[in-house]
Amino acid sequence: MRRTNNYPYQPLNQQPSGPSPAGHDALEAENERAAEELKQKIGALKSLTIDIGNEVRYQDKLLRGIDDDMDRTSGFLGNTMTRVVRLAKQGGGAKQMCYMFLFVLVVFLLLWLTLKFK
């Protein structure tokens, strides 16, 4: 094995009379087969890359939708909490808060019973 510049390259043994036509045809056929295999692998990788890109775009769209929904929900929740605090600070707010707590408790109890015995 002859190494030049630390590359493991082995030149083809050529006969003094030149390469035989049969050997040249065999090398050409092997090169064509290798090129065809590379072409198929490149096509598969291209298809896979396109599919990955489509999936990324789809999931990005879903995440943006979820982000928008969360922003709207946090705004709604913030407004609701402001109203609840204002209601609690008003006179007679304790009685109204008790009614609201009991209402929420009854709603959750009804939902639980509905789902349990469905």
UniProtKB/TrEMBL annotation:
* CDD domains, per the entry: SNARE_Bet1 (cd15853)
Listed under GO biological process in this entry are:
protein transport; vesicle-mediated transport
Q: Where is the composition biased (Polar residues)?
A: 1-17
Transmembrane feature ranges: 97-115
Q: Where in the cell is it found?
A: Endomembrane system; Endoplasmic reticulum membrane; Golgi apparatus, cis-Golgi network membrane
Q: Where is this region: Disordered?
A: 1-31
- SUPFAM superfamilies in the record, alphabetically? SNARE fusion complex
Which family is this sequence assigned to? Belongs to the BET1 family.
According to UniProt, the name of this protein is BET1 homolog
